[in-house]
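FAQ: What does the model actually see?

It sees only this:
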Amino acid sequence: MISSKKSIFAKTLLSFFYLFLYTPLLMLVAYSFNSAPIPAPLSSFTLQWYRQLFSDGEIILSFLNSLFVAFSTTCLCLLFSLLLIYYKTTHGRIKQMIPLFYGNLVIPDTVLAIALVSFFSLLNIPLGLTTIIISHSIVGLGLSIPLIYLRFKDLPPSLLEASAVLGASSWTTFKRIVLPFMMPALLGTGLMIFILSFDDFILTYFCAGSSTTTLSLFLVSSLRLGISPVINALTSIVMIFTIALITLLFFLRRKEEIEKC
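And it is asked to produce this:
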């Protein structure tokens, strides 16, 4: 009897938690289809805000900029991580280097952003998409290298030794054994970096300059003028896009855990 009451209380508390967490998101999606903007009550269904959204060239440009930055950041982080792992397969020592990459995650984003802007100014590098990608990659390497290295440590050393005994070169061993083994970790880490880069605001705000706009910068600048129904439609699409990527990341992590077992 007592255990059943505890179970009911736990389920009620969990339901309240989920309700508190997701009600604002559901209201956001609902008002993106409402004919009247916030704070007007829900009335008739309409798609006019989505039509305005897809006809706005500035929004589309900022969205494409965010996609380009996130994709470029992900590729750079995975490339540098794989180069480090390849160096490890050639009997290089990188164990002592791994903790150094956690520093970018510990340092506050504001402090890191100011340091990067000062560094770019010192080298006379103009602020824009390039500096945004560099700043996002610095933070992304703090995630990609430790996570991919942990996956590499699960690789049985006997496979590398057998490949060397059979006369395979370091590149062949890396391409035929190491890379396929690490593919789930690469995909999962890549998705994580992509999501973080796509949604980042602080580093982007400091490193974008005055001529570059990403989706996060556009949203913040638009909110200063009030909550537009077009912004509701835009954030609804971004939210669904992010949830889809997180769901894919969850399944990839799940697959990796199953393979380890």
